[in-house]
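Why show two proteins at once? Because comparison is the fastest way to build intuition. When a single record is shown, students tend to memorize it. When two are placed side by side, the eye starts asking what differs. So, the first record is below.
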Amino acid sequence: MWSTTSRPVFRRFVGAVAVGVALAATSGCTVPADAVAGISVTADGHLLGVMMVCGHRIDGATLYVDSDDVNKQVTVGSWTADRPLTPGLATWPLDSPAAGWTATRSLAPLTAKTTYALYGWTKDDSWAANSISFTLADRDRLTPGKVRYDSISDNGDVSAITVSIAEFKAKACQNM
């Protein structure tokens, strides 16, 4: 038999457990971003990955078909740095072997009217890079020395912009 003093305690306990379960079920786990991914092109038009590491490290990058449907997010290229990228700027060609990088999945041919996203990651999922989404038309508008990336404004709005590599290096880590 329950005493009258234990019912409120039991109800509070059940209520606390229910709130905890609800919070756990509705909260998503995300990897904190501490780098910014971008794209550029070489003088002969080859696609470059660009990574500005802001404070910790990034171990590699992946290019995938960007889609709201998780089942349609297909990896089209993946690269692992020979050594973790530390704070600063890194670039590498996405379509050919590069010193300091290993293609864990060589770049598949890119197609028109498809949106791609490039992001950076760590092997232990402790850090990530903010991604950049782009199409081949976006790539074709780039010129050597320019970087397309998603800039985050002071109020948290995100917009894709194209800037010089120097400006990318100076401003990409703001508002992280």
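Second record. Ask yourself what differs from the first in the token line.
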Amino acid sequence: MLNKKECRKEALCRRSGMTMEERTDAGRRIAGLLFADRAYRNAERILIYASYRDEVPTYEIMEQAWRDGKQVFCPKIEDSPEPETTAGGKKKTMTFYRVFCRDELVKGYQGIPEPGITEGRSWEGSSGKDLILMPGTAFDRERRRLGYGGGFYDQFLQNACSAVKIAVCFNCQVLPELPEEETDVRPDRILTEEGWI
């Protein structure tokens, strides 16, 4: 079995090999499958990443969620209130903030779009009607997920127990098997343009 670094490299290479047309078409199919699903229809609050580079596009999903009257929250990477790490750097944490339109997203951590307005808008724990849509680099059919290596989603998901957790990816990112650590949190389901896992 490949190690985490090799799995990330393989899946990201496959993803970057998709044409813009293939990504756009696959993104539309993913959105259509999501909108037809009970988890989306029942959700009052959607916690969703703002897509970056060649990730599964999420702006169409956000726009539909706003039209459907759902609250939309996007992640922001910030300095943690916890003490500094042993390496002397400031520990980072991920917090979700409500956004009312796409224009409220600004370039943030590592160039990734994130909420620019945060005061009084933080997500304050699961209401039981929350849906989390998360990205990743690689996945497998046992619902193992590899993120980008920061551990932000694994850390966040440990405190979001009652929310429905769905990872979205292109089918080419699904590998035969991924390594897993004790701190890794599996999504409840994975959605690709080919269907649900």
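One difference worth noting in the second protein: The longest strand covers residues 71-79.
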